[in-house]
From TrEMBL:
Residues of the signal peptide: none
Transmembrane regions listed in the UniProt entry: none
Name this polypeptide is given: non-specific serine/threonine protein kinase
Protein kinase domain ranges (all copies): 1-202
Amino acid sequence: MDQVICVDGRYQVGEKLGTGSYSVVYHSQDIFTGQKFTIKLEHRDNTGVSYLEDKYEILHKIQHGTSTIPGLPQLIWLGREGIYHAMITCLKYVHSRNFIHQDIKPRNILMGVGDSRDTFFLIDFGIAQKYHDPSSCIHILMQENLSLVSTPVFTSLNSHHGLQLGHQDDIESLVYLLIFLHHGSLPWLAGDSKMISQATRD
């Protein structure tokens, strides 16, 4: 649980405040607005039961849709993060920091162990690039005839065409990765076992 960096693509998790029998409480800050929160995270178990969700539903019924009752906290339910959602959330956070990864592929995806077994890690930022200047709101300039720098099997069409990449190309590569993880192959691999094996090693 301590490995979580960002929840729902915008709530940065900070200092731990306390630990309960089924959840951990942290300081949190909205990376877009700067607003500060207290966030409670619950480790998912095999039963599928969420005590936090049950508590939220009870308080929501008590408040009857009103979030400004004196003495009662204002709650936001962020839902559950499965591995696919965690990948999207992680990539969304990278983009919010004005960088693109440019090499989304199986080898750059790691899963935690033990208490962090549900935590997703995106690694190898060796060819990551800043694509947006937040001070000027200027996007990286479009270029053509660029060399292919990403892994061919998972990279975007723009990359194959030698075009400057943007955040949408990371998303396209992530879609290819999710298809690969779900089906064990991609249409352009045509079930070729050698190419599939190579795709997981590159």
